[in-house]
Amino acid sequence: MSQELLAILDQMEREKGIKKEVLIEAVESALVSAARRALNVKPEEELRVELDRHNGKIKAYRNNEEVTSIDFGRIAASTARQVIIQKIREAEKDVVFNEFQAKVGEIVSGTVYRFDKGNLIVDLLGKTEGMLLKREQSPKEEFRQGQRICTYVVEVKKDTRGPQIILSRTHPNLLKKLFELEVPEIYEGIVEIKSISREPGARSKIAVWSKNEKVDSVGACVGMRGNRIRNIVNELQGEKIDIVRYSDDIREYIKAALSPAKVSDIKLNKELLTAEVVVEDDQLSLAIGKHGQNVRLASRLIGWELDIRTKTTAAGQKEKEGKAEKEEKIEKEIKAGKAVVSLEELSGVGEKTLQNLKEAGFKNIDDILEADIKDLMKVKGIAEKKAKKIIEQAREAKEK
């Protein structure tokens, strides 16, 4: 049995990928179990079995004394077989676990094997099965049995039934890895992926930057005639992908992230990481996108909260803020003990004109002095001459 056993173990090492030493230890463990029964060894007695790594001879030692009265060939064939098989199965599971544990964060290919309560069971190269949970599936993708599928390895867990390999089609890094496979400049590190925001099955944005001025980051990702980006879109079954040029200038980055909309102005709050983005009225729907998708993806991409407004809305907000600021100023003056002269102190101004002034937002003499003639002429019943006179009267009232 000696050389024949070693030959069998060599063959199993090649076919199963299990180290020969692991197999030998499994054989020794199995023979110890069988020999204890054959020799009726008591629990307190020591028994060990050794398999010579060179000639395949098997020796047993009971309390450090060699046992010669035992037929290991017969025992191995009859009693130890199941134990050896079990050990080999455990070793096979460890090999698969270690192989796929090293692939966490990588892409693996397989075929759809079967469907299980909304989950997909994927055959991974005939070595094991992976599970694509329902929550890790893109809502717009459909697969059929036997179809090739490309997935991202999220996690590998040990289980009594074997390694549990959790796969994903929705993870942002699936998109990153697909670009690495498709774009040599990314794989080689010339073009860097700075950020990704994704709504699986619908639309994604990916920000790229080139370390080499001679290499266009966006052009490299698109490829000649769009072949590179087209291959990725096809792999994701039609998911739209916006390639955004990254910039250290946050304003330029925001403009690129909100593409295809054209941005007119941006106001930043760097402490709160918020930005008010102003666009033309006809660009609002593009900037926001369907159900807010474009601005939502752009916001996630750059890590800032974006507030989209049209020029009309922004102007109205500015005017409102101006009035609020003026009211706050008056309130502070009152608290500080400064005199605020009421409109009633204007001499020669009738009650109707006073009422019109108040309705137009002029609450006191200071409001009159901060305005110009054109502002007063907007008030009902006040012409240029009368406006000049009211301002003069306001100065006189203030000086009293």
Itemize the secondary structure elements and their pairings.
Layout: H1 2-16, H2 20-39, E1 47-51, E2 58-62, E3 65-67, H3 72-78, H4 81-101, E4 107-116, E5 119-124, E6 128-132, E7 148-157, E8 164-168, H5 172-182, H6 184-187, E9 191-199, E10 203-210, H7 217-222, H8 227-235, E11 240-245, H9 250-257, E12 263-269, E13 274-279, H10 284-288, H11 293-302, E14 305-310, H12 311-335, H13 351-359, H14 365-370, H15 373-377, H16 384-399
Parallel strand pairs: 6-8, 10-11, 13-14
Antiparallel strand pairs: 1-2, 2-3, 4-5, 4-7, 5-6, 7-8, 9-10, 12-13
Question: How would you describe this structure to a colleague?
Answer:
The protein is α+β, with helices and mostly antiparallel strands and 400 residues long. It folds into five domains: 2-97, N Utilization Substance Protein A, Chain:P, domain 4 (2-Layer Sandwich); 103-170, OB fold (Dihydrolipoamide Acetyltransferase, E2P); 183-246, GMP Synthetase, Chain A, domain 3, CATH 3.30.300.20; 247-330, GMP Synthetase, Chain A, domain 3 (2-Layer Sandwich); 339-399, 5' to 3' exonuclease, C-terminal subdomain (DNA polymerase, domain 1, Orthogonal Bundle). Helix 5 runs antiparallel to helix 8 (227-235) and helix 9 (250-257) runs antiparallel to helix 11 (293-302). It has 16 helices and 14 strands. The strands form four sheets. A five-stranded mixed beta barrel has the order 4-5-6-8-7. Residues 334-339 have low confidence and may be disordered. Helices cover 44% and strands 23% of the residues.
